[in-house]
Amino acid sequence: MALQDFFDAKLFMEATITLVVIMDPPGTVPVFLSLTGRKSPAVRAKAARQAVLVSLLVITLFAVAGQAILSYLGIGIPALQGAGGLLLLLIALDLLTGKGSNDPEVAEDVNVALVPLGTPLLAGPGAIAATIVFVRQANGHIGAYVALAAAIIAVHFVLFTCMRYSGVVIRLIKESGITLLAKIAGLLLAAIAVELVADSVRGFIAGT
Question: Which in 60, 102, 104, 206 has the greatest CB count within 10 A?
């Protein structure tokens, strides 16, 4: 049997790159620090673990049963892409304008590891839609499913690493560097959001 029967390396690379771009591990750092920067290192580490676990659970759920859930609710991939694009655009605008980054009430009143970090920032509609599309591409092949599972785990490991050691980042690039990084992340997120909305429109047009 060919190696691809056990592990689809091409799908692994495609899924890993796509999810890294959509979930944007470096871009989570300024958001994570803005929500947990006033906490102790132990609390930040716990928040990083919780956010990644929540995201992993949500993505896994939609990888396993996402198509069935969408079919039951009557939601198509284009609609999910459009919703994901609009939601990411709101987050991008917050990063670009600096709104919400200095609100001390946010970190106190809710568990930010669950919302907004775990979902919708990490496991947002964009990542969910991409995962469902890759499950479709797997088309029942075990090697493809194994590759997709490995890609999801690998991306979440990168996410955890970026958030877990975000304190090192802020010491290296200082507050001004974090602000610059937030602007860059916002610009990239806005571009991804526009692309998702465009894909959604093309999907609706193709379906008519």
Answer: 60
Residue 38 DSSP one-character state:
T
In terms of Cβ atoms closer than 10 Å to its own Cβ (0-12, 13-18, 19+), residue 140 is exposed
Measured distance CA(152)–CA(159) in Å, rounded: 11
**What does the pLDDT average to over 10-39?**
83
Expressed in angstroms, the distance from the first to the final Cα of the chain is 42
Amino acid present at 161: T
Q: Tell me how far apart the alpha carbons of residues 71 and 97 are, in angstroms, rounded to a whole number.
A: 37
Which pair of structure tokens corresponds to residue 106?
């946010």
The rounded Cα 155 to chain-centroid distance in angstroms is 9
What is the Cα Rg of the chain in Å?
17
3-state DSSP percent of the chain in helix, strand and coil, to 5: 85, 0, 15
**Contact yes or no for 6/142 (Cβ under 8 A):** yes
**For the segment 109-132, what is each residue's pLDDT rounded down to a tens digit?**
347 788 778 887 899 777 888 898
List the domain boundaries for the chain: 3-207
163-186 tens-digit pLDDT: 998 878 767 777 677 677 767 767
Question: What is the secondary structure of 83-104 as a DSSP string?
Answer: HHHHHHHHHHHHHHHTTTTT-H
Sequence length of the chain is 208
